[in-house]
TrEMBL record:
SUPFAM superfamilies: FMN-dependent nitroreductase-like (SSF55469). It comes from the Bacteria. Transmembrane segments: none annotated. InterPro entries: Frm2/Hbn1, Nitroreductase-like. This is Nitroreductase. Signal peptide: none annotated. GO terms for molecular function: oxidoreductase activity. One of its GO terms (biological process) is cellular response to oxidative stress. The lineage of its organism: Bacteria, Bacillati, Bacillota, Bacilli, Lactobacillales.
């Protein structure tokens, strides 16, 4: 049982259907991410979380690098 769990855990993957179609405005997405990062708990309240939000050609450039 334990080895089966370890095997399944090691091989799990999350698959996201990412695309360029936005249902929200870039500003709304940016504001949501900003509030989420600000209100997320951190160890010892250190607030070291950072996020990068890219749209358009900037986003395309990043995806070209990571593909």
């Amino acid at each position: 049982m334990n080895s089966q769990f370890n095997s399944l855990s090691a091989n799990r993957r999350s698959i996201y259907a990412l695309g360029n179609n936005l249902s929200q405005t870039p500003k709304a997405i940016f504001d949501l991410v900003k509030q989420t990062v600000k209100n997320s708990p951190t160890a010892f309240n250190s607030q070291t979380v950072r996020a990068v939000v890219l749209f358009g050609t900037s986003s395309d450039k990043v995806w070209e690098i990571v593909e």
